[in-house]
């Protein structure tokens, strides 16, 4: 590693690594860092990933962030919105979503804060989170790690966590597959009990910092340091995928 990099770029390569081994699946990435990460994965270790422009086109050569399919990239197929549901239910998709709240077992809330009958804050609603989490692997991206996000119990369950999937059993558990949670401080995965644990902390971050920013006790017994980007990954991020520097809007500095 001969080039300096930013925290955002560390997050991008950590997210990119989460797509390894996905195969020929439709990649669903919400946010700048996830969108950059899936393009990076496609250009490096996972060439079979199917990318879209976020609307109706599959792209063999996706446009740089900030541009539409009409402005750049190479369209290879068109898919109407109704077909996305078939893709989800067939498991031929992988998602990296956001989360307004996450609990220790990976239950996700993007619906509202407070009592759902009289919420203190209305969010975007459950959207596709229930279907995503019971049909294919789902990862999460949290750009602002804090105890307000990582909570003991979510106010509304949008995405299904490990404890609820196991308790429900049957169809709810058959294809349920939570992968990793990536934040600007660390990478989490799930232990044998289904609870979040620290897989790695980013360079310059301590385990204690991560624990202090998390609203529940978290295991760090096997935590390592998140890897740094290679020179080629940095070139692709900076010159090809995100020349406008949109990654810094999610992770400044």
TrEMBL record:
UniProt keyword annotation of Transferase present: yes
Any GO molecular function: CoA-transferase activity
Membrane-spanning parts: none
Domain of life: Bacteria
Keyword Transferase in annotation: yes
Keywords for the protein's UniProt record, in alphabetical order: Transferase
The family this protein is said to belong to: Belongs to the 3-oxoacid CoA-transferase subunit B family.
UniProt protein name: CoA-transferase
High-level lineage: Bacteria, Bacillati, Actinomycetota, Actinomycetes, Streptosporangiales
């Amino acid at each position: 590693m001969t080039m300096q990099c930013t925290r955002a770029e560390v997050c991008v390569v950590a997210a990119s690594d989460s797509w390894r081994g996905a195969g020929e699946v439709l990649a669903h990435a919400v946010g700048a860092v996830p969108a950059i990460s899936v393009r990076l994965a496609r250009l490096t270790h996972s060439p079979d990933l199917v990318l879209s422009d976020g609307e109706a086109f599959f792209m063999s050569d996706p446009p740089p962030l900030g541009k539409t399919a009409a402005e750049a990239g190479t369209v290879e197929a068109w898919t109407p919105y109704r077909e996305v549901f078939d893709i989800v239910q067939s498991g031929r998709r992988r998602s990296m979503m956001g989360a307004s709240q996450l609990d220790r077992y990976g239950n996700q809330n993007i619906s509202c804060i407070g009592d759902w009958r009289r919420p203190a804050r209305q969010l975007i609603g459950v959207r596709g989170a229930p279907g995503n989490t019971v049909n294919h692997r789902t990862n999460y991206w949290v750009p602002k790690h804090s105890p307000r996000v990582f909570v003991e119990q979510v106010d509304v369950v949008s995405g299904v966590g490990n404890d609820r999937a196991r308790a429900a059993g049957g169809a709810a558990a058959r294809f349920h597959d939570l992968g990793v949670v990536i934040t600007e401080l660390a990478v989490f995965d799930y232990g044998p009990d289904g609870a979040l644990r620290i897989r790695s902390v980013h360079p310059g971050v301590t385990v204690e910092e991560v624990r202090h920013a998390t609203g529940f006790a978290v295991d760090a017994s096997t935590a390592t340091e998140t890897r740094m980007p290679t020179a080629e990954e940095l070139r692709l991020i900076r010159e090809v995928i995100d020349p406008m520097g949109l990654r810094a809007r999610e992770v400044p500095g």
